[in-house]
Amino acid sequence: MSTAMDAAAxxxxxxxxxxxxxxxxxxxxxxxLGLAVPILALRTEQNISNELILQPRWGYVAIAVxxxxxxxxxxxxAPAAPARPRMLSLPRGxxxxxxxxxxxxxxxxxxxxxxxxxxxxxxxxxxxxxIQILIYIxxxxxxxxxxxxxxxxxxGYVAFYAVGAYAYALLATSDxxxxxxxxxxxxxxxxxxxxxxxxxxxxLMAAFWGILLGFPVLRLRGxxxxxxxxxxxxxxxxxxxxxxxxxxxxxxxxxxxxxSFFGLPFNDSEGGFxxxxxxxxxxxxxxxxxxxxxxxxxxxxxxxxxRLRRLPIGRAWEALREDEIACRxxxxxxxxxxxxxxxxxAGFGGFAGSFFAAxxxxxxxxxxxxxxxAVVLSIxxxxxxxxxxxxxxxxxxxxxxxxxxxxxxxxxxxxxxxFEPTQYRMLLFGLAMVLLMIWRPRGLIAFRAPSIxxxxxxxxRAEMVKEGHx
Amino acid sequence: MEYFVQQMINGITxxxxxxxxxxxxxxxxxxxxxxxxxxxxxxxxxxFIALIFLMALTQVLGLGSLAVALFVVLILGMLxxxxxxxxxxxxxxxxxxxxxxxxxxISAIGMSIFLSNLVQVTQGPRNKPVPSILGEVITLSGGxxxxxxxxxxxxxxxxxxxxxxxxxxxxxxxxSLGRAQRACEQDRRMAALLGVDVDRTISLTFVMGAxxxxxxxxxxxxxxxVVNFNDGFVPGVKAFTAAVLGGxxxxxxxxxxxxxxxxxxxxxxxxxxxxxxxxxxxxILAITLVFLPSGLLGKPDVEKV
Lengths: 470, 305
Hints:
The structure holds two protein chains of two kinds. In chain A, 68% of the residues lie in helices and 4% in strands. Chain A has helices spanning 2-41, 58-77, 94-149, 158-173, 175-184, 189-214, 222-242, 244-247, 273-276, 284-310, 312-322, 324-329, 334-360, 370-383, 388-404, 410-415, 425-439; strands spanning 42-46, 52-56, 253-254, 362-363, 447-448, 460-461. In chain A, helix 3 (94-149) packs across helix 15, helix 4 crosses helix 13 (334-360) and helix 10 packs antiparallel against helix 13 (334-360). The mean pLDDT of chain A is 81. Chain B has one domain. Chain B has helices at residues 2-32, 39-60, 66-93, 102-123, 152-174, 176-186, 188-193, 198-224, 233-246, 251-271, 277-291, and strands spanning 128-129, 137-141, 148-151, 226-227. In chain B, the strands form two sheets. Chain B has a two-stranded antiparallel ribbon. Chain B has a two-stranded antiparallel ribbon with strand order 2-3. In chain B, a hairpin with a 6-residue loop joins strand 2 and strand 3.
């Protein structure tokens, strides 16, 4: 009896819900139509006589509207997911085990790639995926010192990356330095050892610039600091473009010497790496070496950060992030604290930059646009500010995700040969940034392990942590 | 002297466009304390919307009168750009309101990347040369060495900007919406308690900023005669500089800042070096924020302990 009544009562309700969802979805579809009409429906094209003409493409609009309609409808009709527990209770030491496993995978990655794809495919997988992602992990960890630990919002981090890259590139290719080294040590010395000598120099140079740019902005906080650092980043890029006698402008610096295996070049010569170790020559060795080099640099960044967090300076950074005024009243020298954060963060950016220059063999101001800063900052924030593992995961997801689009050739079979997945790389990147932020505003790993605790070590949820007023 | 006057005219024209964009930044920052990074790209989007409508009206529909066409494009562009801004605010910023401060900033940067790439994908990466309109010039002083000229475009830009600013000033100062905006700017929670629909007010703030950016977009398109998907970032940063220079949160400040930035940029390119004109703007941004954070007309930020 009662079940029959329930059923009778729920049926109209279900219909009403369905009708409401339909209505809502129709509204969304209309909205999409409005958004899509000029920009998607009519493409401006130049004809042969260089005049613009309009090319209607209403099919795309229909697809977009249909997609928006069905997505909204399914979202409304789908049963609500059960509420997730507020906090995942992971077993003790889970993070440590996970880190160890990830590290093992990382170290074995070139061998895995080699085993799965053979020599020809492995170069691509190690270089495009491994090295590319690791550069961003290193940049993320470097910026994490400034943003995640010290709470200083930096939108111009790419400036230090650029300083590092240009410091190495210009020193290694400059004629006076070359001839000086050739006169004093020998002709073969500089091309082989330039990277190893310039790497620390580039790091120091970037750290010096970090201090230099850090000084004027000490008084600024939050968004204002972000904007000024953005301005500095752009100024450095514009100087690199316009100071042609030194930087060669848009054309960039080419012929940058590649790193050697501690003095053994990666070529097929007599004294080359392959010959000395009795191996058959292949360019793969250089790629694998570069991979392990960036692994080492990134792990160095991570290790230094973790150690610094336990030092007084690291605690001062985190205190500064939480409350600058309290910091000052407790006698912490905020000037030094901020400047060290800027300098150390910038220094690691410089290392990454000179690695980048050495890997590419060519750099130009194109590689150091604001977009790079935005990408690195988003990796830090999406990872969960201050969390080393989170930054690594975010870099893997965001950079790996966009790189994988290069591999989606099978999509061409569905959408036709003119469909180019790589075109959508940054489009999807931007969309993913927005969606991830809405899904997890506090980042992927939204809790922190305290570096100092009373009796018991408890994770601190990110909601408890303030940010970025420094 | 003629050269200088000519540069002043050019600078004021450019400054009007910056001022219109700057209002969008300054209003959003005033009301929710957020740097709306996507605003420059909304502006860029509006240049494309204006271009497409203009072509549709003149080429496809064959509308004869240019004045009518421009007016229709202006209205349609304002409506559609506002719609975009409304949807963006709804999807990307509103869910993050009350979340921690970096979240909307990152979301806005993501939106900015999304918008510029959307236009690149849908409209292609090349420069779009706009069919030339309003090319006539008036010669003000017929100096033999350097005639000072004022083009119809420049007159249109300055007049449209002035008219819109008056209308806009009226909305903010005299209507209930403007009152709600000013109330939210002072204290959002208290405004909500007193019955102001805060969400709606914030949405409308975005919409108004975008509508002004759409006007700037149409003017920019007719003035420069070329649009590109990449043209959002640099004008965006310059307009933001204008907002900061005028005092962020202050509407007259945004216009003043816009005019100043336009003049500085033009005079710098005219007398020093055109290569470093953007460096000049960025330096002004940094110098203003470091030495005069409240800008020319802004209220100083009081630090509460």
